[in-house]
Amino acid sequence: MPATKTDSMSGYQLTDSVRGSLASRFAIPRSLGTTWKSPLAAMLMLTAAIGASSFFAGCGHGTTSVAPAPAPASLGKIAYVQDEDIWVKDLPDGMPQRITNHTEQPNARPAWSPSGQWLTFMKGKQLGVMRADGSAARFYDAGYIAWSPLADRLAYVRNARTGEQVLPGELVVENADGAEQSVIARWHSEAGLDGGLAEPAWGADGSSIAYAEQRSQAGTPPTHVYAGIWRVPADGSGAPAEVYNSGSPPQDGVGVLGWTSEGHILFYRMPGFASDLSDG
After folding, report:
1. How many DSSP H helices and E strands does the chain contain?
2. 3-state SS class at 55
3. CA distance 187 to 160
């Protein structure tokens, strides 16, 4: 850049035209036109000024554009019930999508499979499973259903005929699409007894399933003769084993809550079970 010598006392300074050009191109203040004692001093000051201008431009104070912030990472999906239908939405701010139609019966209780590709739900009083977009829906003649913690595999209790009765008597496991189905436990039926299986719950490692079993003598009111908790290998490789019963005759009803991470079954008791039932 040219500089002009003024006199021996003043030193060197930028011409007005050069200073104006630098000010417009590099956001250098026009007041930078003070004099310097040598051309080297003038060039050093000019280089520092241009460097400072470039730095502030990068900070948003100049004309240099700043790249937009990246879009927030997906936080997964949420399934929820609104106006008796099931909706899904990408988090945090995706567009909600309705995946059921309640023109016949209300929909409720959506629950994700481990992969997020399937949902169990209720339509009216019937349990079902469908893909996350609402397609491939199937329904079960069952009262309880639960996902494996590790795979898209279901456990449910379905009704089965026992003599003249149809009772919730079979514990079934199968893939979300209905493939690889097998019965891994059955209710211990006897002539004249009512009851069934209930509340299947997968262990934390997916290798075992716990469930409750009840038996009673038919009548009004019924007389309960058994209440217990059982476990069975989820792959059907072994026979079911009783892990708890509430005595004979049972004084408490029992149910399964789940498992601890250490492999212990969590269950609950219903005190006064026999007397409550006999009172209707």
Report:
1. 3, 19
2. helix
3. 9
Displacement of CA 46 from its chain's centroid (Å):
59
pTM: 0.69
pLDDT of the chain, 280 residues: tens digit per residue: 444 444 433 444 445 554 555 444 444 444 444 444 455 445 545 454 445 444 444 444 444 556 676 666 678 999 999 999 999 999 998 999 999 998 879 999 999 999 999 999 999 999 999 999 999 999 998 889 999 999 999 999 998 876 666 778 899 999 999 999 999 999 887 777 888 999 999 999 999 999 999 988 877 777 888 999 999 999 999 999 999 998 877 878 899 999 999 999 999 988 755 433 333 3
Mode of pairing for the β-strands spanning 153-162 and 165-175: antiparallel
d(CA 171, CA 255): 15
Q: Mutual orientation of helices 16-26 and 39-56 as an angle, nearest 10°?
A: 20
User: Sign (positive/negative) of CA torsion 99, 78, 151, 243?
Assistant: negative
Calpha distance 190→218 (Å, rounded): 11
